[in-house]
Structure formats: structure tokens, C-alpha cells
Amino acid sequence: MAYDFLVVGAGFAGAVCAERLARAGKKVLVIDKRPHIGGNAFDCRDEHGVLIHPYGPHIFHTNSKRIFEYLSQFTHWRFYEHRVRAIVEGEAYPIPINRTTINRLYGLDLSEGEVEAFLEKAREPRDPVRTSEDVVLNSVGRDLCDKFFRGYTRKQWGLDLSELSAGVAARIPTRTNDDDRYFGDSFQFMPAEGYTAMFEKMLSSPLIEVRLGVDLDTVKETERWDHMIYTGPIDAFFDYRFGKLPYRSLRFEHSHLPTCDQFQETGTINYPNDHAYTRITEFKHLTGQVHPGTSLVKEYPQAEGDPYYPVPRPENEALFKRYEALAAACTDVTFVGRLAQYRYYNMDQVVGAALKTAENILARDTSAARVAESAVAG
């Protein structure tokens, strides 16, 4: 069978592109090597009936009204503002660092203005700011850096703050007020029925065919298409021609407490300095589900396994640029998504990139059709 588009990957990038193309009347085949849609945002009920995220917590947040309204076509929302605590020397403190964190940690009673002065005195100015260590020291100084960031980063990335590009730490703000929300975005919600239900609606067009547990090599032997949208690892697409791009992986340890209504005070608790895991997430905070028990996940970062996070270092970016040049020469393939673009995207950023990709493809198709019509008329 012939398709207008083959979309490789049924996560956010692939599903958004498929939905947009089908909306424009294109016939789309979506494949994924996993047995489910949704990519890492896939959710399901565990054997105890609790809605969980098998690949770790996914909390939607964005400042883009356009992206929020686009996804709202496929889901109702549950308002949810994520809060995180970090365990330092046996005590739980708000993270990102705020006025409460500093006052409780140091036994102070500073006003917002005094917190600002405290941080100004504590910070170690760095110029230029090249690494994540530069970012953190420049913002909060060495003591807070060592208590909250250095150990967590070492576990998460297998690297010191000084070995990571500045963008990693720049994602985490520092506040002088008591705002203890993890994100400050204008839109903070969770899909009311879960992510998988949202993806099912996104992919429900009769012009979209979804095949799961299928890899690209298999489909190449049996199907035909005009253009491919690839959302997997870009180095794998080119058979690792220049060597493998470094990714950080995760191992998830799920558990259920049958007689515990709530295990921890916030959705996620970070452990920057203790244990081999980085954090524990309790899903009922995120979903609002009522259940007599509760389900948790511990995250253990590791070097090997499925690729989750591109490792942001200058030498890795240079290697990616070589693959990007190969991708640019592929006129019949478009690369989009965290793995295909080797970018540490949030979910909304992936959606935005996919919407732009689909718009560009459809614009090219329209332009090509007009050229063809003009040639026939001429």
C-alpha cells in the first residue's frame, strides 16, 4: 500500500505530525517499535488500578497558548501545579530554591529583599558562563550548589556540573519569594483521562494507520511512502556513521503501597546526596486519583539502556552537527523530536517543533502543487 507519509515514532513529535498531516487530507502510516503509542509519555493503570507513568513522571506545562489550545482538542484538563522537595541532611526543602528554602536551611527570617541580598553575597560571579557549574555558582554560590545541585547532577548525568553545558542548570530558576511551584508557566495541567487517552484521540483519524511493535527496517520491505518523518535517534538512522551520540538512560523501580493513601507531601521528592536514585514520584498527586493505596516510582540514572536525555556537552553538539548535515541532505526525510534533533526538549517544545514541521511540509506540498499546476497550464 502507498502512503503519503511514514511517521516513525508514536510519541508527541510523531503523533502531532501525523494528526496535522491527516487533517490536511494526507494518508499517514505511524509505526513504533514499542507495543504502545505515546512514547515516554505513555501512561496506564498498574495491576492495582493506579494510573502510572511507566517511563517516569510527565507533567505538562507551557507558556504557549497556541500549544495548549492545540492539545485541548484531544483532552480535558486537570489543573495541577507540580511541587518538589529536596532532602538535604534529612530535611525536606522546596526546590527550586526560594525564600523558604534559605530561611529554613540557615535558620533565618529574611524578607524577599534580604534574600536577594543574601544570594548576591553568596554568589560567585562567573564571566563568561559556559558550564552548568558557572550557572549555579553565579546564581546561588558554592554552599547551595553543593547541597542541592552537585550530587543530583552527578547521579543524573554521570558528570560533574563543570562538565555540562550551561543550559542544563539554566532550566532551574532561583526565587526570592515563597513560590514553591516547580514550574512558573502560565498553563500547568494534566490530561484529565491521561496521556494515552489523549494520544488515542490525536491518532483517531481514518487517514492514520498505526502499527505497533514494528521497526523501520521491517516496513521498508513491505510499504511505500512519499516522505518520512523520523523521530528516533538521529545517529541510529545513519547507522552510527560517525559514532554513537551520548544519551543518558534511566531504570525505573515501580512499587505499590496497598494501605497507604499518601506516601509523601509532594508529587516528587529529590534526593541530591543520598541513595542511588535521584527522585521518588507518587502518581496520585499528579492525577488526583482516589485510591486506597498508592503507587511510586524511583528513578535510577544509568549510561546504558533506552535513550532518554541527550547529554549536553560541546563535543556532543559538534558530533550531532555532523549528523545534522547528513539529515539536511535527505530531501525525502524530515527529522523532528528530542532524539532526532538531539535536544533536551520539554513536552511542549516537542509539540511546538512538530507543529512547525508539519506546517513547513504542508507549505512545501502546496508550493510544489502550484508549480506543477502552473507547468501544466503553461
Automatic annotation (TrEMBL):
Name of the protein described by the UniProt record: UDP-galactopyranose mutase
SUPFAM superfamilies with a match to the protein in the record: FAD-linked reductases, C-terminal domain, Nucleotide-binding domain
Keyword Isomerase: yes
Signal peptide coordinates: none
Needed co-factor(s): FAD
Recorded GO MF terms: flavin adenine dinucleotide binding; UDP-galactopyranose mutase activity
Similarity comment text for this entry: Belongs to the UDP-galactopyranose/dTDP-fucopyranose mutase family.
Organism: Gulbenkiania indica
Species classification: Bacteria, Pseudomonadati, Pseudomonadota, Betaproteobacteria, Neisseriales
Domain of life where this protein originates: Bacteria
PANTHER family: UDP-GALACTOPYRANOSE MUTASE (PTHR21197)
Entry keyword set: FAD, Flavoprotein, Isomerase
NCBIfam families in UniProt: UDP-GALP_mutase
